[in-house]
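Narrative of activities, Objective 1.

The group set out to show that a structural description can be obtained from nothing but a protein's sequence at a throughput compatible with the screening campaign. Below is one input-output pair from the validation batch, recorded exactly as produced.
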Amino acid sequence: MANDERHHTGEDQLRDFYDSVYAKGVRPKVKVSGHFSRLAAKIGIQKGQSVLDVACGQGKWLLAADRAGAHPIGVDISPKAIDICRAILPHGEFHAGPAESLPFEDHRFDVVSCLGALEHFLNPKSALKEMVRTAKDDAIFLLLVPNAGFLTRRLKLCKGTAQAEVREQWRTLNEWKNLFESAGLEVHQRWKDLHVLSWSWIGAKNVVHIPLRIAQAVSLIFWPLAWQYQVYHICRKR
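Output recorded for this entry:
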């Protein structure tokens, strides 16, 4: 029993946590969100490109990339998440495993993405280096990360996501930039994540929270980048 407990840490703990999250009534959904469709257009996803999404979750972003004509490839630490991806994208390529050790050859992908997940990795620098290794020299990297300078967090009104229960590390935008550079990337563009400007986010909780969530969503439009919750980064190899 002692040996089992000793090994139930790190990667195993993350896998078990995400499997338990995905196991709670999640069903495959094949509807492409408007947010991800616009995102695919913004970064110029093209027909025939190979798009790797690291920590792909339920495949929502890859579904949009697929609709734009790209070939979807995903990796997630949760086998249950991978099962969902295979159900909605049976022609895609999916692997269950850690981001720090990607099962792909060098210089393969046109686009590499990691959306809202780096802060939960055991070793984000190693994961980023793996993404760099598997990407083509002219590849685009699309990274979405939380900002430690988020105004609501600085006012101690935000405690993080549900994943904070297992692992969540916030960084300032400059700290993220330094991390990306240490892994061999260069930031070319940044912009606000405004996916909360939708009823799917505003109405996701109890009705009593709706006025506050409307106020927060609208505020993000006017807040400077340094106050945003999540920020998109376009990077390329240095």
